[in-house]
Design brief:
By secondary structure, the chain is mainly beta. Helices cover 10% and strands 57% of the residues. The chain has a single domain, classed as Lipocalin.
């Protein structure tokens, strides 16, 4: 039997994983454009789950969103209703740049969020200050939103700490039923 060099196998495995990573350019040839200024204008409702690193659902929630835009600048007010009774808020301030990217800030976001879109996909990357019990952690958020049609969007978010996936979020947005609410 031939000797297998473990470092070489590890290196080749790493390349294989990296080459399987999703990239925004994967959606550049899609004709359906996801304009967040259009979609997140007015009332939207969303339902979601938080999964731990092994994909076990740890929390469920509903979100009421209200977006208002003035030209290339917008505010997205979010009110989260969690299954354990917790209610929390986040107010995003977005500005579309000349190159089409979006810069966003919010109360619990460290620095700026950077958003880009291609075809029906929108990616938003940012660092979030996340409270867990009596401690807060800065975690990297990688949001992927996919426009299904003019009323619905699916969002998958990977949450990383020190480069390790610690949780995931799955959301379903619906703009067709603006009279629905979480309470």
């Amino acid at each position: 039997m031939k000797y297998v060099n473990p470092p070489v196998v590890l290196l080749l495995s790493s390349f294989a994983l990296v080459s399987c990573t999703q990239d925004l350019s994967d959606y550049s040839s899609q004709t359906s454009n996801f304009d967040i200024k259009e979609y997140f204008n007015g009332n939207v409702i969303a339902w979601g789950t938080i999964q731990d690193a092994s994909n076990v659902v740890t929390r469920r929630f509903c979100v009421e969103l209200k977006g208002t835009w003035k030209g290339k600048d917008g505010i997205l007010a979010e009110k989260f209703f969690f299954d354990d009774g917790e209610i929390s808020y986040r107010n995003w301030h977005f500005s579309q740049q000349v190159d089409g990217r979006y810069i966003g800030t919010a109360e619990d976001v460290v620095g700026e969020a950077i958003g880009e879109h291609q075809g029906f996909a929108f990616q938003l990357k940012y660092t979030l200050t996340l409270p867990v019990d009596d401690t807060t952690y800065d975690v990297s958020m990688n949001d992927w939103m996919y426009k299904i049609d003019k009323y619905r969007v699916i969002n998958k978010t990977a949450i990383h700490k020190l480069g390790v996936n610690v949780a995931n979020v799955t959301l379903f947005f619906d703009k067709q039923a603006p009279l629905a609410c979480c309470e």
